Amino acid sequence: MKLDILAFAAHPDDAELSAAGTLIKAKKAGKKIGIVDLTQGELGSRGTAETREQEAKDATAIMQADVRVNLGMWDGYFEDNRENISLIIQQIRKYKPEVILANAVSDRHPDHGRAAKLVQKACFLSGLIKIKTLWDAENQAPWRPKAVYHYIQDYYIKPDVVIDITDEVEEKLAAIKAYKTQFYDPKSVAPVTPISGEEFFDFLKGRWSDFGRYIGAKYGEGFTVSRPVGVEQITDLL
Predict the structure, then answer these.
(1) Smallest Cα–Cα separation from 74: which of 39, 44, 111?
(2) What is the tens place of the pLDDT at every residue in 25-34?
(3) What separation in angstroms does the CA of 95 have from each of 53, 91, 92?
(4) Phi, psi dihedrals of residue 129, rounded to the nearest 5°
(5) Nearest Cα to 123, choosing from 108, 139, 102?
(6) Is 235 helix (H, G, I), strand (E, B) or coil?
(7) Which SS3 state, helix, strand or coil, does residue 231 take?
(8) Which phi and psi (to 5°) does residue 132 adopt?
(9) Residue ranges with strand state E in 5-115
(10) Could you report the per-residue pLDDT of 103-141, keeping only the tens digit for each?
């Protein structure tokens, strides 16, 4: 299956928190969307790899994503090496996305910035004719996406691009809340984390509102770019 948009995430819930509105909006417009999680989020203070797996399935159903894959890299320890680059290239060449979404270039969790660099590097290498993956039994053809956009996570980064997600906010919130072990639950006895408090959802909506103000919308999702965005006409940027 060829995808229009493929979102990569260091952990299950990264894409939901920062890019679910954009993905849901694209799906409503008839686009094919997918998510590739690099790790199972097994080092998270709340929940387990098994509960996170089910939560990811529930969130995927809410977003109606066409594809979701987990590459099983080591949470907290994945490195920029041939094996991990090859795993990512394999997914890029398999699904041939026009656009790739990736983690924030810098963030509180070190996995986020590391994943951003890893995915960006893999996008370039995926387009090289002489690059072979370690598991290239299908002799995959080279493929390089037309654009890579980095979503914004915990730390504030001024966006280069903002997508209006006003009509998608409720579905986005439902997809986030599918990760029941990670977020606010007054009955939970799990350790308190920076994202488990009730006020965290106020922070999220405030961030989306702030991004929305840039474009005159109620809510928005922000992205950064590593190279200029190219369009045919200046009016295409309206």
Answers:
(1) 39
(2) 999 999 999 9
(3) 22, 6, 6
(4) -60, -40
(5) 102
(6) helix
(7) coil
(8) -115, 140
(9) 5-9, 33-39, 67-73, 99-102
(10) 999 999 999 999 999 999 999 999 999 998 877 777 899
